[in-house]
Amino acid sequence: MIDLRNLIYIELYKLFSSTRTYVTFFIAMALMLIINLGMLMEGEKIFDFLLESISEYFIVDGEILNGYLVTYLAMNTLWVHIPVLIVIIAASIFAVEFETGTIRLLLTQPISRGRLLQAKVVAMVVYNFVFMLLTVLAALIPAYLLFGTGDLVVFLDGVQFIQEATFLKRLVLSLTFATISMIAVSSLGMIFSLFFKNTLTSILLSMGVLILSTLLQKFVFGLFSAWQPFLFSYHFSKWQLFFMDEIPYHSILESVGFMLGMILILYLISYFKFKRMNITQ
């Protein structure tokens, strides 16, 4: 019987030897660099316009456009794109193996299906962590080099003024929260790939769930407000709360609990489905 450690190593090797994995890294990092360059060329004009409405109420001393603000904006503008890239990988975890038939060959070996699923989940978690870390660094490092540092002004529930000394701590906390969110998205892609055994179908269904969740949250004018705590998009957006002057930890922990619960539920469904699946069909 192949032990779990070796299975994890095999799954990580397959994941990080795949071209599509590095394509998702490249796209995310390239988008971050493009946003940094765009802010370098047009950022001053944009913020001069935005600050006109509050200039009579506040005296602004120093450089508003700095690397920390650009990093925050870069992460904010890409929040729709990041799940798409992550789902591409998550949806292929099982689907590609079914499409190529390698899952049958794999399970002829002395391998427990439960352990194989655990190994794939661990590989998925590692991918999410690496992806999010590279994305944040691709936003932060160029922004730091091009714009320097400074206090952060965030237009969120009014105007939030964040001290420079607290920014990196808040960024790490928001990165941790965002990684948990993306693991929940990956779990959705993984379960669809297990049920439908097709990469494209799994990607479309995963994105369909996320798009529907966003539409119900944003464009129903309060008709489904009672449903918001059950929508993925409602909880994903909570990463921004780490950039409030007073961080609402209670609300954030509720969302963390929801996402961890969804990850567990999706994992258990995947486990029982995989254990009973007839792979010869």
Note down, in words, how this protein is organized.
The chain is built from 11 helices and 2 strands; from the N terminus they run αααααααββαααα. A two-stranded antiparallel sheet has the order 1-2. With 281 residues, it is mainly alpha-helical. The chain is globular, with a radius of gyration of 21 Å. A hairpin with a 5-residue loop joins strand 1 (152-154) and strand 2. The protein starts with a helix and ends in a 5-residue tail after the last helix.
User: Major sheet: order of its strands?
Assistant: 1-2
Q: Which H/E pattern describes the elements?
A: HHHHHHHEEHHHH
Mean pLDDT across all amino acids? 84
Looking at how many chains there are and whether they match, the oligomeric state comes to single chain
Tell me the helix content. over 70%
* Contiguous runs where pLDDT drops below 50 for at least 5 residues: none
Instruction: Calculate the terminal CA-CA distance, rounded to whole Å.
Output: 25 Å
Number of strands: 2
Question: Describe the biggest sheet?
Answer: 2 strands, antiparallel
Class from helix and strand fractions: mainly alpha
Residues in β-strands, percent: under 5%
Features:
single chain, 281 residues, mainly alpha, 11 helices
